[in-house]
Amino acid sequence: MALSRRFNDSFIKEAFAQEVRRVHAVILRMLSYVGELCVNEARSLNTYQDQTGNLRASVGYLILYNGVVLKSDFGEGVGGSTGERVARDVAGQYPSGWVLIVVAGMAYAADVESRGLDVLTSAEQLAKQIVPGLIADLRKQLAAR
Fold first, then answer.
1. What is the dihedral of CA 63, 68, 70, 73, to 10 degrees?
2. How crowded is the C-beta side of 89, counted as CA atoms within 13 Å?
3. pLDDT tens digits for range 22-36
4. CB of 119 within 8 A of CB of 48?
5. Strands (DSSP E) along 45-111, which ranges?
6. What domain of life does the native source organism fall in (predicted)?
7. Do the beta carbons of residue 28 and residue 70 sit within 8 Å?
8. SS3 category, 32
């Protein structure tokens, strides 16, 4: 008795494509989580007095996949639009792979940091602390499937 398959090549391709979509959704959720944590950390700091609100509003993030922006979160007004513009400029340096960009977009953000005031430093430290564990969890989830 000969064996015959009851599926075609398009079934296999679709099964792989569906798995890739699932993995991408998990990665997007993970990067969104990290981006939100970083933005919340940076915006909640009281190490400097943001007189216009522009510096805090310019803090935000972009998530890219192969150079395409999948998610963006910035504050309102001048600060938010400036922050997003800066993040999109940085995004041009990353044409492939998954990328999370967190910025404080106002030109004077680095000057504020240089005076020992925390604009993004603690957010960066938070990301460095939690990302390895999230990647390990992601690997476990993918291996369990």
1. 50
2. 9
3. 889 999 999 999 999
4. yes
5. 59-65, 68-73, 98-104
6. Bacteria
7. yes
8. helix
